[in-house]
Model the fold of this input.
Amino acid sequence: MRDAATILHVDLDAFFAAVEQLDHPELRGVPVIVGGLGDRGVVSTASYEARTYGVHSAMPMARARRACPKAVFLSPRMARYSEVSHEVMDLLRSTTPLVEQLSIDEAFLDVTGARRLLGEPPVVAERIRARLRSEIGLAASIGVATTKFLAKLASELAKPDGMLVIEPGTEQAFLAPLPVSRLWGVGPATLTKLERMGLRTIGDIAMIDEAALAGTLGAGLGRHLHALARNDDARSVTPERDAKSIGAEQTFSVDLHDRADCRRELVRLTDRVSARLRGAGLVASTVTLKIRFGNFETRTRARTLAEATDVSTTVLAVAHELLDEFDVRRGVRLLGVALSHLDATRARQSVLGLEGDGEVTQRLRVERRSAVERAVDEVRERFGARAVGPATLVDRAVKEQGNE
Done:
């Protein structure tokens, strides 16, 4: 078990119904039930407005119609839900590459590596919830804990639209009074067996001898439930694949119309994403700029570099060039920078050999800049993310403070 609560479980609330309400504003605040509409159909998702009538997932649709006759009943649009799910997962991966997607609407994150730049896990979790709401328009509940089991349990208890943090050292006190049905693997048949043994809370299972539990439930299930009752869950967050990109985005409270303001925000974004790239020991060959206008039209531009890099000034120069392809006077709601075609091994850049003097000089400048940025990373790691930053942003902050 970890000594810090760095595992997050992110669970989108009433996902299918929430997407329908997102796409159709007239449905907001209205009971929405998504599922098979035939006589033998079942409920896939019910909005929280419908749940107040007792409607829940897996309920027969005929019964749901009787319980909530004034609800709006819709067939699932899986292609649309998948599209939104991809947006959500991309947003999560912009926080940390350690994202393990469990289903279309939930995922585990390990934010150990994000603490240096983004803050402690509860701060990161609240930031994710805020971004999901402002950038995508969906609510999510998040559990924060030392293990995957406890993080998922915490997110369930935080619903709807909440966050629950289980601090290290408090796990047993938190688990003990909860019913045994909260343990993964306890279905109706197992619940009956546990109740016959007089085991009704998770604390009861934690205190009983494992051999006695295994004698009734079988060795595998008995060992599994006994371990979970003691929060013994060593599983790590395992992404399905290596990170394909590392990115950073920012949604603005007021649309930006001035190119200088957009360029300044790109300084902030490239500084952040390049630091994450270096922290992961990677270099990138492709820079992608994402821009969302005030009318929610979203466009991207990408450029592949001649040589992979982790130097923020190199990334920034390309990002500025890509920005110049857009008319920002329309009003910019969001800017994002993503780095892709990642490589875990940094090629040694030769400053001798057949290159001309100009190329040698440029390579020396890049290497010196890289060394400076890595030194900045070390300062931030020791003293915090705000200890040092790009001069453009520092100058701006000083001016703003002088105008207050």
In short: The two ends are 47 Å apart (CA to CA). The first helix runs from residue 15 to 23.
